[in-house]
Amino acid sequence: MSSLTSLRLDAASVSATMIGAISSAYFVGLTLGAVTSDRLISRIGHIRSYSSFASLVAITYLLQGLVFDPWIWLLLRLVNGWAMVGIYLVVESWLLLVGDTKSRGRLLAIYMIALYGSIMLAQMSLGAIGSAAESAPFMVAGVLASMAVLPMAVLPKTAPDVSHAEPLMPQDLVRMTPAGAIGSFGSGVGIAAVYTLLPIYLQREGMSVAQVGQLMASAICGAMALQYPVGRWSDRKDRQSVLLALSVGCAAVSLAVLILPSYPPLLMVLMFLIGGSIFAIYPVAVSHSADRAEASELVRVIQGMLLINSVGSAISPLIISPLMNRLGPSGLFWAFLVLHAGLASFFLWRRNSHPSPTSAAPFAATAQMTPIGAEIRVTEELAQAVSEARTEALVP
Question: What's the pTM?
């Protein structure tokens, strides 16, 4: 829906600034929902909450298909983001209930495959569904959102508890782990731009809707495929160096997109690399932050990093879309180039002035969308590794 929304608005010659505002509204809704929806779930229960959120998501999709007005779409995307994060809150708290600290790593891996796999399939279907009828993609999305209620409706009444999230505040995290906080913020800016503005770039470069879907799927495939090898690399090497390498890689790929011809096969490779490197920055930044945390503070640290990432995502379209308005579609990759060159410079300075200690916390891929999901990352292995690292640091 993020890709479809951007493509339809751009095809209707809506200004890039307005497209940025509509795209930002979705991430603002996600951020607001992440810090407010848990109270609603606690009052009315998981099953009713999930049904309400999913129905609201379906309504926003169907209304987008019925009414085309940028201001109405802005409101619908805001509501959609708020409702969508409510769905993730229910799902992730249920995953937390069924898995103990020993099995959470496997749960997180399955969750990540399901999440990124479905996003990749959705991008690939853009061309086929879009060719059916003007409103067909919105109708399909509404049907899927409605169908998603059915499995939850037949579950037993037992439901997990949802405690109100109290993440560490961004200023505390900046003091504790500057590289982790800046990496999380920069990653949020990049990820939101991939979801909302990259489809516009591809469409303006002359790609058909089907080609846009394929290239977007390639970016998401890179995000899913590269997290684990990059994560294992960061376990063996200090994570500041890995963050530096990822930022340099993003900047290099962005420059390649700007100077090389826009052939679809070449773009497929470049989109795989840009998606893989941008999406990998966040989990490495979170793991770097976990290296610096106390075992008792792990959940709050990861929740705080998600909040910082969400803020970056919310402002990203507002910052980058005016550049695309001024510089043309290439403004997106100029923004990527400047963003990641800045991140690389910061990580280089931090590595030289404050060398990172040996990685203490084992890397975990990141798929959680809410503060509740942060607890899924805190496995028995992670908590034990952090505790042992802290103990060793205190021994003279």
Answer: 0.86
